[in-house]
Each structure stands twice: as structure tokens, then as C-alpha cells.
Amino acid sequence: MGPFVFTGLPARVIFGPGRLAELGAEADRLGMRRPLILTGKQQAPLGRDAAKLISGATTFDGAVMHTPVTVTETAMRIVRERGVDGTIAIGGGSAVGLGKAIAWRTNCPQIAVPTTYAGSEMTPILGETADGAKTTRRDTKIQPETVIYDPELTLGLPVPLSVTSGMNAIAHSVEALYAKDGNPVISMMAEEGIRALAGALPRLSDARTEALYGAWLCGTVLGATGMALHHKLCHVLGGSFDLPHAETHTVVLPHAVAYNAGAAPEAMARIARALGARSAASGLFDLERALGAPLTLRGIGMREEDLDRAADLAVASPYWNPAPITRDGIRKLLNDAFHGRRPEG
Ligand code: NAD
């Protein structure tokens, strides 16, 4: 074991079926008198139900993917007009992102109630889009003070969405296991997060609690470490080619892992052990295939003629990565992901 730095990020986590009932008490604890409840359109009824638990709450159901600044500005008008003193985001990464964007501007306390496995609720990271460009910042005031994980809220998350969202979460733990700034505590959480999710995804009808537990761990390690090649590629493919977030993570993950396999043997052994597979890359691919997940970039909207430009963008300002980044290597990786070739090993 080498030397390391461990920084625990403060967050109060309330976990378990039915725990949403404690939302009012939690808002009270954080001194919220006029909270704004944030959802996307689909989760609007959930937001209205939650508002009944807290007197003085207002709802806003305009949250969308990638936290556009225009939406945040609309919500900020409500914040100013109503004297909002805290936010409660109920939904996936889109709703949580809007809560973070408001907290960044106001330093209001936040409660996040995640209904997908994306993991944003456990990180001090905010990604926002303006004029087609995404900027990312990290600040302690961006991290939600309280997170309520209530598996009952995930019962209606359709299985295909649950699978890709779960693989998105697993990707955080995979990259935490070979992160430059990893440490033994984070690796323990990452391995357990992969184990819990990989075990739960094939039997979601009775494993929603375990899946959400895994998502919590995966979100925690995302907040605590720097991500590498896999997240860089997904950022490029989502940002410049408009590919869907969780599906892109799902397709790319086995190929990014194969790319890094030789450079991070200890991480690979832990990923394989968590999956109960012989090898990390093919183990991830086989899990996804068994779950009926998307396996090809072609199938989620990538055009073959854009692969060269994607490779150029990915190598232009690479994140730190255990294996050296080469243009040829990345182009081959993208080609394998485009066609959905099973990684060897
Ligand atoms: P999302 O929040 O847009 O949700 C995806 C879809 O699932 C939506 O249509 C939503 O209405 C639906 N949905 C959510 N919960 C549901 C439920 N319980 N039942 C039925 N439908 C439900 O997407 P996401 O994948 O959760 O999050 C992706 C976003 O989060 C991206 O913008 C990504 O960049 C961001 N993100 C940020 C971080 C961070 O640390 N900053 C981390 C992970 C993801």
C-alpha cells in the first residue's frame, strides 16, 4: 500500500424504504422555511406530494438533462420572488443538478432525493451548459447537505433505464479503483458498490434496496476521486455528439476497462472479484449483454463518420489515465465500442 490522502466529504445520508416521510423533519433541521422542490416534468407529481409534507414549500418542475443555465435562471427568479431558503431535488441527476446550480448561486442548503443511480447527489461537482458548451466546477457548497435514499421511489424506474443508470454508477467505481488520487477506503467502497449493483441489476424486482445502496457507494467514490479515460470519452460523446448519458457510459465502459487493463492490474482484479467474473472488461461486457443493455455506439446514435473527430477530441485534453493515451489506441477503442465487440480476456 502506498501513501495516500483521504478527505471525507460531509453529507448526511438517510437510507431505507419509506424514509421520504422524514423529508419535513429534515427540511426543518436544515432551517428551511420556504424550500423550493425541484423535479423534472415526469417527477412533478412526486414533487407535489412531497410539498404536502412541508408547509411553505413551492414546486418547480423544469429540471432537464445537463443543467442548462437558462433553466437555472428561471428557477432563480422563483428563488428571489419567494425568498426561497433551501432546495429539495427529487429525481435523477437532472433534478439534483438544478439544486446544485441554485446552491452554487445562493449557498442555500440542499436536500437531494435521488430516484436513479447516477450518483450526482454525493458529489461537490456541478456541470452546467450554456450556449452548447458544458463547464464543470467543484466546490463544497455544491454538495447536498442531506441525501434521502428511499428505494420505494425507484420502483417505477423502468428496467432498461435502471440497467443503464446502474452501469453509469458502476463506471464511477471502476475508475475510482484506478484513480491517481484513490485510497484504500475509497477502493473498499468502490468494490462494494460494484458488487452490490452487479448483484442487484439482474433481479431488480426484489433488489431495489441493494441497487440503491450500490448507487450511494458509487456516487461517494465519484465525489472523492478524479475520473479517467472512461469519463473523458463519455463527456466527449455526450457533449459533442449528443449521445444519451447513461447509455453512453454503458457502451463505453468495457472498452475503457480493456484499454486500461494492463496498466491497472490490481484494480482489474478487484473489479473482476466484485463481478464474480474471470476478467474485468469481459465480465462487464457479459453482465451488460445478460441484462439486455445497449452494447454498440451505433445503436445509441453515433455515426461512424464521426469516430475520427471523437478520437481527436478525446486526445486533445485528456484526463489523467493509468494507461498512456494514444490517438491510435483511442480510435481502436471507439471502433470496438461502435461495433460492440466483446473485449478479450
Ligand atoms: P435524469 O435525471 O435526466 O433521468 C433520466 C430519466 O429518468 C428522466 O426521463 C426522468 O424523468 C426519469 N426518471 C428518473 N427517476 C425515475 C423514476 N424513479 N421512475 C421513472 N422515471 C424516472 O438522468 P440521470 O441519468 O439520473 O442523470 C444524468 C444527469 O446527471 C446528466 O446531466 C449528468 O451530467 C448528471 N450527473 C452529474 C453528476 C455530478 O457529479 N455532477 C454525476 C452523475 C450524473
Q: What can you tell me about this protein's structure?
A:
The protein has helices at residues 23-29, 44-51, 69-82, 93-106, 159-177, 184-200, 208-224, 229-241, 245-260, 265-275, 280-290, 307-316, 327-339, and strands at residues 12-15, 36-38, 58-60, 87-91, 110-114, 125-130, 133-138, 146-149. It is an alpha/beta fold and 345 residues long. The protein folds into two domains: 12-154, Rossmann fold (3-Layer(aba) Sandwich), CATH 3.40.50.1970; 159-339, Dehydroquinate synthase-like, alpha domain (Up-down Bundle), CATH 1.20.1090.10. Strands 1-8-5-4-2-3 form a six-stranded parallel sheet, with helices on both faces. It has a two-stranded antiparallel sheet with strand order 6-7. The longest helix is centred in the middle third of the chain and has 19 residues, at 159-177. The two termini are 27 Å apart.
Topology:
Blueprint: E1 12-15, H1 23-29, E2 36-38, H2 44-51, E3 58-60, H3 69-82, E4 87-91, H4 93-106, E5 110-114, E6 125-130, E7 133-138, E8 146-149, H5 159-177, H6 184-200, H7 208-224, H8 229-241, H9 245-260, H10 265-275, H11 280-290, H12 307-316, H13 327-339
Parallel strand pairs: 1-8, 2-3, 2-4, 4-5, 5-8
Antiparallel strand pairs: 6-7
The chain binds nicotinamide-adenine-dinucleotide.
The CATH topology annotation of the largest domain reads as Dehydroquinate synthase-like, alpha domain
Tally of helical runs = 13
Overall mean pLDDT: 97
* Strand-residue proportion: 5-15%
Lateral strand order in the biggest sheet:
1-8-5-4-2-3
Number of strands: 8
The total number of structural domains is 2
Level-2 CATH architecture of the largest domain = Up-down Bundle
Strand count, sense and barrel status of the largest sheet are: 6 strands, parallel
CATH top level label of the largest domain: Mainly Alpha
What is the percent of helical residues?
40-55%
